[in-house]
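> call design_seq(struct)
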């Protein structure tokens, strides 16, 4: 009888252990599913905010051109999104975030062409959408610099190659986890090929500097708008709608809260939540001080008047400057980075005007020059206690400045070199610059139907 009871107890215990194991496995799966759902919701929400930034770019650029070219610049923004995402689907994502399984190289990926293997790793879908919105942003930056005198077909070709090759390669170097700027060595440490790993939280260098350098090359390659260099008073070329510029700036600032906090890439732990809050605070403070500084500087410089358009660009410069360090710095450091970013923007803007480079929306000054400062700023700032920052002011022998500075040089050379290779043949073939006749009449009248962007013909000038 005792043996029978013992066997029954043993059987019950076995069943209980089995049920406990099943319950534990089910609980782990439920937690994993819940975590994946939280991360997906967070990244999709952030991606939608980044996508909305293109409405901001459209309004800002439309307001910055003359009325007679409003439809044309809006068409270019629509082309950027459409062509950019198709390029990202075909080759861009694979080149940027598709490292090989065995011994991946340090230059470019190749897995995920045309979304191949996505059904085996379904988490790639959310990453594709989030990072694709970033990709399109880099190309959009270029469109504003080349506005009012660039043919759509030439710009479309450049957009495809920017979103297929130029931008994805830089992403692989810095964000894939396998590129030469940021990979894991045999000791399990994150490193670059020549020192500490490259820090660029949301893309001051990888996104904005790439777009800004491309914008500079585009503005130089296509040349200035007809009569712009010779004009003694640039009032004729002034933005036609300051309200559009301000509205576009607010749209961009709003979307930046997807750009920067969304780059935590996760929202399932208190650590993720606290970092996202920190990033949001820094993304607010830097543009405040940069915008106010530029507004004050413009008022103090000839013609000594309040420049609302300059205020807008100062805000954007502050946003670009803090994008690299938003997850690595304290609030006071964000303010300093924003202030210096405002100075960098103003200096670059004045320099281009002295060099007679016609950049309609100051794209290089806002995104290129200030993006470079944002990357380099992490060589000075960045608290080790916040997102593993290793700035010189906190760790004097970290070597972080060297990594950041060299990354800026390489990204600039890569982007400028390939941009010139693409734009020079387009210019030679006559596919880049609009004729003087089209520029005089306005691209809307000559190239678009209906021929006016607004309801009244009297509004076109």
């Amino acid at each position: 009888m005792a043996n029978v009871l013992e066997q029954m107890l043993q059987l019950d215990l076995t069943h209980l252990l089995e049920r406990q194991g099943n319950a534990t496995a089910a609980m782990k799966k439920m937690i994993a599913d819940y975590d994946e759902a939280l991360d997906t919701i967070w990244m999709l929400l952030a991606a939608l905010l980044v996508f909305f930034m293109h409405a901001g770019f459209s309004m800002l650029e439309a307001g910055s051109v003359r009325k007679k070219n409003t439809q044309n610049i809006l068409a270019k923004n629509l082309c950027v999104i459409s062509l950019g995402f198709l390029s990202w689907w075909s080759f861009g994502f694979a080149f940027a975030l598709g490292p090989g399984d065995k011994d991946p190289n340090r230059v470019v990926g190749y897995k995920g062409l045309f979304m191949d293997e996505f059904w085996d790793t379904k988490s790639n879908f959310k990453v594709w959408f989030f990072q694709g919105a970033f990709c399109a942003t880099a190309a959009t930056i270029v469109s504003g610099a080349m506005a009012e005198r660039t043919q759509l077909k030439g710009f479309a070709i450049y957009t495809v190659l920017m979103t297929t090759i130029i931008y994805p390669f830089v992403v692989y170097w810095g964000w894939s986890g396998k590129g030469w700027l940021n990979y894991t060595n045999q000791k399990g440490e994150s490193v670059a090929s020549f020192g500490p790993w490259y820090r660029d939280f949301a893309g001051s260098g990888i996104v904005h500097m790439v777009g800004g350098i491309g914008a500079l090359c585009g503005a130089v390659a296509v040349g200035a708008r007809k009569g712009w260099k010779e004009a003694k008073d640039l009032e004729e070329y002034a933005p036609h709608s300051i309200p559009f510029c301000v509205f576009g700036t607010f749209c961009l600032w709003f979307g930046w809260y997807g750009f920067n906090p969304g780059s935590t890439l996760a929202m399932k732990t208190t650590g993720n939540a606290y970092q996202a809050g920190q990033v949001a605070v820094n993304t607010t403070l830097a543009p405040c001080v940069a915008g106010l500084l530029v507004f004050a500087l413009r008022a103090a410089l000839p013609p000594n008047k309040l420049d609302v358009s300059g205020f807008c660009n100062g805000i954007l410069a502050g946003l670009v400057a803090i994008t690299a360090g938003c997850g690595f710095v304290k609030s006071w450091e964000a303010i300093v980075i924003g202030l210096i970013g405002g100075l960098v923007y103003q200096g670059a803007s004045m320099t281009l005007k002295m060099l007679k480079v016609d950049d309609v929306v100051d794209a290089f000054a806002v995104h290129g020059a200030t993006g470079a400062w944002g990357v380099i700023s992490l060589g000075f700032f960045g608290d080790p206690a916040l997102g593993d920052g290793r700035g010189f002011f906190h760790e004097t022998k970290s070597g972080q400045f060297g990594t950041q500075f060299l990354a800026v040089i390489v990204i600039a050379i890569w982007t400028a070199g390939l941009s010139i290779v693409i734009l020079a043949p387009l210019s030679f073939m006559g596919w880049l610059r609009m004729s003087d006749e089209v520029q005089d009449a306005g691209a809307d009248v000559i190239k678009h139907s209906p021929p006016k962007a607004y309801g009244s013909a009297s509004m076109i000038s």
